[in-house]
Amino acid sequence: MSNILHNATVDTLLERRSIRKFKPKPLSDDIVETLETVAQHAASSQFLNDWSAIRITDPAAKKRLAEIGGQPYIATAPLLYVFVLDEHRNAAIAASKGVETASDEFTLNGSYRYTQAQNDAVLALHAMETAAYSLGLGCVILGSLLNDVPALIDLLNLPEYTYPVLGLAIGKPDQDPALKPRMPRSMQFFENEYPSNNETLLAGLQDFDEEVHRYYDLRNTERPVDPFSDQIASNAVDSGVTSKAVAPNAKRQGFRLER
């Protein structure tokens, strides 16, 4: 028996599912303003506000993003954003105050600020996503846009000290996918310290594998989803991941992740 407490916010989050098919209805300016303002109210490390989001309205740009992501539905999203970590704006502010951004003392391009800005962008995106669901909209987070980071940087004209993080597609849902299974809490929440042995860590894996294998994704209704452990094993040796390495692209954008 579940002891979960329910209210509108909790239920919105518990019912969250990715929506990949949208009704072809534009969203109002009021909705856009609401979602963007909510995103701005997310937590920000040291209040540096080191993220930005680019709203994509040009059909040609949407089509190109769909090509980069390998997902045609991206081009059909009524509302589409790419969130970026953004130290370019703060570098410009610092330069206006006399800071020499080309010096070794400049730290906004280091690994700490890179990761913190990335965190801030994700927090803002999640706030926007949650607000969208609460308004009866559907969303899908687009990690697939990172399939070709250089192409994405060029398409969005991203300047020095910026880097794409994730995309977010929003619209009125035109599908009703089943809720995807979630891992047992015992495999993800620990008390005081990380489990000291893998037997304890993986105690719930077999049942979770079976539950995941019974789930049918709307993207392929002809076959059940692979067990979770099979998905992990496949991704653990995916050679394609090396082509998405962050360091070379981050260096191109002026970041020094070795610092």
From TrEMBL:
EC number, UniProt record: 1.6.-.-
Residues covered by region (Disordered): 239-259
GO molecular function: oxidoreductase activity
Enzyme class: oxidoreductase
Keyword Chloroplast: no
Pfam short name (any one): Nitroreductase
Keywords, in A-Z order: Flavoprotein, FMN, NADP, Oxidoreductase
Nitroreductase domain segment(s): 14-172
Keyword Oxidoreductase carried by entry: yes
InterPro entries in the record: Flavin_OxRdtase_Frp (IPR016446), Nitroreductase (IPR029479), Nitroreductase-like (IPR000415)
Family: Belongs to the flavin oxidoreductase frp family.
Name of protein: NADPH-dependent oxidoreductase
Gene name in the database record: nfrA
